[in-house]
């Protein structure tokens, strides 16, 4: 890129606009839904992380090498990956093929194939910008769930000294703690994690204990009603059967909700149709740019904008805050000036508020607001939602 192109890019970045309704959200009011686009941006060297198609192809390759799938089945699944539009169905068929005929998904060879595909993930982290942004939001109370089998976020977070915890839907108590906001650095893997052979499921039938538990379902669905979900790198998440079972089937009046999805605007007609369609489900579709390379910088800049917002808690003052201490100091000085050695206990009265404000205004100047430099980010996706077939992009 020559200097003129760089100048043009910088100019476009400076003029980038964000939805005020999004950047004015408090981090604790957001819930990030992480899809394959995040993994693709972080570790582009692993094709299996880049898309559902890439993941399925890699699993088929591993199954062939490990000799856990009949050669005829290998050939058949490779044809399906090329021809079938509904890759989630292909993935479901593949996991069933490598599972016991009883229908039980454990034990099965699918986990072994994923372990082969995702071996030594930490060595493949090339661009952690998106992960840094996610951790920054988590520090401020943002919750995170993912449809991914990988644990790139947890690996990176642990490298940064964060007490990351991977969760799946098999542990009811931990799910409830996470859903109630008690697991600050917890990442809920709704499909399970490749490192845990007992927790990985593609079919909702594997989570009957969860979907038929009123307490768990109410807590999870309340998140969809009370939080603003921000979909990052999500291609077919809204068509995902498990995601639908957990959050969408029984949540009424979705048009009244306010969720957000970052997508690639590759085709304007498709993009604006998707925008209109998704509003019916309470989701605002936002473009991060015209190429996938813009995704990491867009996410970084969006995070900076959100984190600039002043928390409502910052305006709450009690006797333990700096303002309260300053007022006590004022009282002590006044008593000292009047020749009193020790202050008497201050009686609560109607004048206390006025004295408090008077002391505060005389002792403190407002702290300058730190404005962080804007940086850019981006992401890519192929979007198929609720039976609406709208291809935005293929990873």
UniProtKB/TrEMBL annotation:
<keyword id="KW-1133">Transmembrane helix</keyword>
<keyword id="KW-0597">Phosphoprotein</keyword>
<keyword id="KW-0472">Membrane</keyword>
<keyword id="KW-0812">Transmembrane</keyword>
<feature type="transmembrane region" description="Helical">
    <location>
        <begin position="30"/>
        <end position="49"/>
    </location>
</feature>
<keyword id="KW-0007">Acetylation</keyword>
<comment type="similarity">
    <text>Belongs to the FAM118 family.</text>
</comment>
<protein>
    <submittedName>
        <fullName>Family with sequence similarity 118, member A</fullName>
    </submittedName>
</protein>
<dbReference type="InterPro" id="IPR038916">
    <property type="entry name" value="FAM118"/>
</dbReference>
<dbReference type="Pfam" id="PF13289">
    <property type="entry name" value="SIR2_2"/>
</dbReference>
